[in-house]
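Hi support team,

I'm filing this because I wasn't sure whether my run with glutathione finished correctly. The job status page said complete, but I'd like someone to confirm that the output block is well-formed before I use it downstream. Pasting the exact inputs I used:
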Amino acid sequence: MKLYFAPATCSLSPHIVLQELGLPYDLVRVDNRTKRTSEGGDFLSTNPKGYVAALVLDTGDVLTEGPAIVQYLADLKLYSGLAPANGTLERVRLQEWLNYITSEIHSGSSPLFNQDLPKTVRDLFTTKLSRRFDLIETGLATQDYLMGNHFTVADAYLFTVLGWMKGFGIDLGRWPRVAAYMRRVEVRPSVAAALEREAAVPPVA
Ligand SMILES: N[C@@H](CCC(=O)N[C@@H](CS)C(=O)NCC(=O)O)C(=O)O
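And here is everything the job wrote out:
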């Protein structure tokens, strides 16, 4: 398999999952500005959507959309516990979280990357995000991870998008359980290994 990634973006989520599963993979870095890749190609020819993450399977099939990619990966090793079995209510609970993260937090924070965003608009997005974090803070009162007391692909995704908040001037310390959760996930060997492998791929020339 081959993961197309860009540093400090949402592609870190499937990357952490690949590491959790101990699956072999190659990494291809994408320059999101030029859409050129570290393979010397045009990323758009692999993923016409033009954004990471994209996972190219050994069959040549290309998977996109982070929530779909992480579920595909988890299902390759069901016993990993990274996702409950398909067809169960628990699996739908996982999908509920993945959808919440992608639509409410990922999409809800993407505009904040725009430095030119007027302060009033920035404040609106920040306030809405704060409410999303309140809900997670409440959920973490009785458990260590989103789905209970074990790590799932939803945690790989949440950790990834929450990692952007500092750069937006949002201090996760306002949500002490969320801050503790970040520290808990951060020390997983999969996270360090994914970050190390990404850092080892030089910028696209
Ligand atoms: N719906 C996609 C969104 C992916 C996405 O937002 N990718 C960002 C990085 S986090 C990106 O590559 N943006 C570059 C662009 O849109 O040109 C998913 O959930 O995977």
